[in-house]
Amino acid sequence: MVFLVVLAIAVAIVVLVMRAAATAPGQPGGGVRASRPPRPTGQQRPTRPLAPDDDPEFLRELERRTRRDDGSPA
User: Fold this and answer.
1) How far apart are CA 34 and CA 56, in angstroms?
2) What is the pLDDT of residue 34?
């Protein structure tokens, strides 16, 4: 029983220390995390298909192959 009490106190101390280390004075979000550089304004990320079935070029090629196919299994 004493072991559980000591374990709970140790966990509470570790949590408090981690929270204190995550927040730097004068910075509301903490100073441990690295911040990303700001994204340039006016520039969009190039859009690209996420999967082959989203790629119009892939779908055209697939359609062309199926038209050319004689219907036999591959």
Assistant:
1) 38
2) 62
> In 3D, which of 19, 14, 17 has the Cα closest to residue 6?
14
**What is the model's pLDDT at position 42?**
64
Rounded to an integer, what distance in angstroms lies between the CA atom of residue 10 and that of residue 16? 10
Burial 41-62 (b: 16+ CB within 10 A, else e): eeeeeeeeeeeeeeeeeeeeee
d(CA 31, CA 71): 63
Average pLDDT of the chain is: 75
pLDDT per residue as tens digits for the range 20-50: 877 655 555 545 556 677 766 666 666 666 6
Residues 72, 63 contacting (CB under 8 angstroms): no
Give residue 64's Cα distance to chain centre.
36
